[in-house]
Amino acid sequence: VCSLLAITVDRYLSLYNALTYHSERTLGFTCAMVLLMWSLCLGVGLLPLLGWNCLRDQSACSILRPVTKDNAAVLAVTFLLLFALMMQLYLQICKIAFRHAQQIAVQHQFIATAQATSTRKGLSTLSLILGTFALCWIPFAIYSLVADSSYPVVYTYSLALPATCNSLINPIIYAFRNPDIQKSLWLACCGCVPSTFSSRPRTSSDV
C-alpha cells in the first residue's frame, strides 16, 4: 500500500512540477525514498515481534494473528485514510492532465473528438486501477474492523487473498492498456512487434 501511495505521489509531482521534476527527482533521491519507505514498513511489520501481540491474551487477538484488535483497527483506519489521500491526489492528477491535454490539443490543432477519446481512455484506465484497488483492499480493511478471532478463518483468507494479489493485477491492467508495455511484451516473448503498433499514434492517455 505504501508503494502504491508513493507511486501516486510521484505521478502527481511529475505533473505538478513538470519543468523541474527530472532535475529534482534524481536516482539517488529515488533510492533514498524507496529505502526509507521499506524501512518504515519493515519496522511496522516487526512490531508483533517486539511485544505488540496477543500471545498472552488470546481474547484480544484480531483476525490478523498475532496482531491485537486495537492494532488491527489502527492499521485498517490508516489504510482507509491512505486510500482517501490517493483518491484526492488522483483527482488532482486528472485536473492537471485535463488542462495539459487541452493545451496540447490547442497547440497541435487536434480534432476535438480524437482528444475526447484519448482523455476517456486515460480516465477509464485510471478508474480501472483505482476500482480494482478498492475492490481488493477495502472489504478486507472493513472486515478487520468488525471481525475478531472467533470468526471462521476461511473468511479471513477469502478476503486477504484478493488484497495480496492486487499488486499482481495492476501490471496486467497496464499491459492491456499501455502500448509501450505491449511492445515490450511482444519483443520479450516473440522478438518482434506487430505492424499495428508502429503506425499507432501516441496519445496523452498512454502515459
Automatic annotation (TrEMBL):
Query: Boundaries of each G-protein coupled receptors family 1 profile domain copy?
Result: 1-174
Q: What is the protein's membrane topology class?
A: Multi-pass membrane protein
Establish whether keyword Transmembrane is in the entry: yes
Q: Where in the cell is the protein located?
A: Cell membrane
Keywords for the protein's UniProt record, in alphabetical order:
Cell membrane, G-protein coupled receptor, Glycoprotein, Lipoprotein, Membrane, Palmitate, Phosphoprotein, Receptor, Transducer, Transmembrane, Transmembrane helix
Highest taxon of the source?
Eukaryota
Supply one GO molecular-function term: G protein-coupled receptor activity
Residues passing through the membrane, by range: 27-52, 72-91, 123-142, 154-176
- InterPro entries, per this entry? GPCR_Rhodpsn, GPCR_Rhodpsn_7TM, GPR_3/6/12_orphan
Q: Which residues form a coiled coil?
A: none
Its GO CC terms are:
plasma membrane
Primary subcellular site in the record, as a coarse category: membrane
The cross-references to PANTHER family, in alphabetical order and at most eight, read: G-PROTEIN COUPLED RECEPTOR
Identification of the protein by name = G-protein coupled receptor 12
Q: Which organism is it from?
A: Opisthocomus hoazin (Hoatzin)
